[in-house]
Structures are given as structure tokens and as C-alpha cells.
Design brief:
single chain, 297 residues, alpha/beta, Quinone Oxidoreductase, Chain A, domain 1, Rossmann fold, 2 domains, six-stranded mixed sheet, six-stranded parallel sheet, 15 strands, 28% helix, RNA binding, ADH-like_N
Length: 297
């Protein structure tokens, strides 16, 4: 089978499309014929060799955590899923024609494989950081870097829970944020004062790693009210860095519920082929994403 792999840490040029042995479903796992794989910032962070304790790497290594596809092997002890089911979920080395998933759910009706591949890690991360930052209904949450996949999910989930959201993003994405129910502003000069004019900030999330931790602490008044998923230096300022996933099965179940009720929709900004994996990483790292980027297999 074909898969994306890298034999050394580095830039996107280290990604190679190679022939590899097919993986197989071990007990408690399923294998899917991958139709689409989500492109997440953690993918290129791992490829660059950033120190992420939750994702130890042995080289050569595959790439990708999220995928959607058709079940073609069911491991021992797995119940409730059959060969031929359309599922989405999280596993390992998902930039490939076949991948083994450790957590999955049936795809909601009406969702394409490309759309479904963009949800698993994104929704888990969004649910986790909302929980960790401790924001409650009736309070206001500031989301820095709000237009990407995690930001899109955070805005919608928070609004569903009765939380007011303020989102920062580039000028081109202001209407997009407003469409998700956020009070929106750009992150260029003067953004802190513009946020203050929008309201009192009770908690804040750093989703882009754009060097705004000090300002987020200033706006909330307490480093314990700020969580980052993108700035490895956040703990030096007393801010929690969140990088270890919670329950992916629970997150997938909540995603299915929200999607099925029309309360969560994350658009696919751009799709790439496997041969374009390096371009997908380059674009993801550049930011300014509106929704998700995915690979079509």
C-alpha cells in the first residue's frame, strides 16, 4: 500500500510517498480503507521534531492521526461495527491507503468522507480545552486564532453551552467568525483594546501560538484562566499547555450528536492528494485556515 512517511525530522520536504506493508487490526482495533485523512498542526509539529510527550516517535515514521473510511478488518473483541461500515476516528499513520483506528464512530448521515476526516482530533481538543480552562455558561471566552479547525469547533460548542465567545482571526475571516456566533476582531495592532471594548474576558484560549500569552493573561487577570495548545513556552508564564488527549470515544460520540442536530459544522477549506502532503503541511503551518484541510486518498 502507499503511505506518507519520513525518515528524518525536518521541513515538509522530508515527507515521502512510499510503498509499505499493510497494517492489520489487532484486538480492540479496526482497520479502514482510508478515504480521507485530517491534516492537523500536531502532524507537522511531530515531523519537525518538536518535543511532544504524548506522541513519541521512532524513525522512520508515518504521519496522521485522523481519518474517515470504510471498515475492512475488525479486531478480536470489537463489537458494534462491521466490515463495510462508514466510520471516522483516530488512529496512527492515517496518511495512507489503509490505517488502524483505536477510536471510531459511525459517520453521521449526510457527511462526506472529506468532511468527517476533519472532526476527530479537532472536537476532542475543543472539548478538552473548554473543560480545562473552566469557562462556564454566562461567561465570556476569548479564542485567539479562532478560524481554524479547533477554533471553529470551540466557538460552536461554547455557544451551544451558553458561553459568549470573542474570536480573533485575520481580516478575511471576520465574517466567518461572526457566522459561527462569535464577536470578532482582527489580531493586528490594537487588538487587546478592541477585545476590551467587546466585553470582560473570563477565560482565554491560545490556539495559534502567535506569541500572545502575556496579553491573554493580562485580559483575564489570571494565568490559570488561560490554556494554550500551540505555545510550548506557555508554562514559563504560568499558563497550562494542553497536549494530552482525553477520551476520544466520548468526543466522537458528542461530535456525532452535535453534527446530527445541526449544531456543529466545520468546513473543509482545501483538499489535497497523498502526493500533496508536503503542500498540505506548508499551508497548515502558515495558518489563516478557515475550517479544515484534509488529504483525499
Amino acid at each position: 500500500m502507499r503511505k506518507i512517511s519520513f525518515a528524518e525530522f525536518g521541513g515538509p520536504e522530508v515527507l515521502q510517498l512510499v510503498e509499505a506493508e499493510e497494517p492489520h487490526a489487532s484486538p480492540g482495533r479496526i482497520r479502514i480503507a482510508v478515504r480521507a485523512a485530517g491534516v492537523n498542526p500536531v502532524d507537522w509539529r511531530i515531523r519537525e521534531g518538536q518535543v511532544l510527550g504524548a506522541h513519541p516517535v521512532e524513525l522512520p515514521a508515518g504521519v496522521g492521526l485522523d481519518a474517515a473510511g470504510v471498515v475492512d478488518e475488525v479486531g478480536e473483541g470489537v463489537k458494534g461495527v462491521e466490515v463495510g461500515d462508514r466510520v471516522f476516528g483516530e488512529g496512527a499513520d492515517t496518511y495512507a491507503e489503509f490505517a488502524v483506528l483505536s477510536a471510531w464512530a459511525r459517520m453521521p448521515e449526510g457527511l462526506t468522507f472529506e468532511e468527517a476526516a476533519g472532526y476527530p482530533s479537532v472536537v476532542e481538543t475543543a472539548l478538552r480545552v473548554i473543560r480545562e480552562v473552566g469557562v462556564r455558561p454566562g461567561q465570556t471566552l476569548l479564542v485567539s486564532g479562532a478560524s481554524g479547525g479547533v477554533g471553529s469547533a470551540v466557538l460552536q460548542i461554547a455557544r451551544e453551552r451558553g458561553i459568549t465567545v470573542i474570536g480573533t482571526a485575520g481580516a478575511a475571516n471576520q465574517d466567518y467568525l461572526r457566522g459561527l456566533g462569535a464577536l470578532a476582531t482582527t489580531y493586528d495592532e490594537g487588538w487587546v483594546e478592541r477585545v476590551r471594548h467587546l466585553g470582560q474576558v473570563d477565560a482565554a484560549l491560545d490556539l495559534a501560538g502567535s506569541g500572545v500569552i502575556r496579553e491573554l493573561v493580562e485580559l483575564t487577570g489570571d494565568p490559570r484562566k488561560v490554556v494554550s495548545i500551540a505555545d510550548l513556552g506557555a508554562p514559563q508564564l504560568g499558563v497550562r499547555f494542553s497536549g494530552v488527549a482525553g477520551s476520544v470515544p466520548d468526543a466522537l460520540a458528542e461530535a456525532v450528536d452535535l453534527i446530527s442536530r445541526g449544531r456543529l459544522h466545520i468546513p473543509v477549506e482545501k483538499s489535497y492528494s497523498l502526493t500533496e502532503a508536503a503542500a498540505a503541511h506548508t499551508d497548515s503551518r502558515a495558518g489563516h485556515t478557515r475550517g479544515r484541510r484534509v488529504l483525499v486518498v
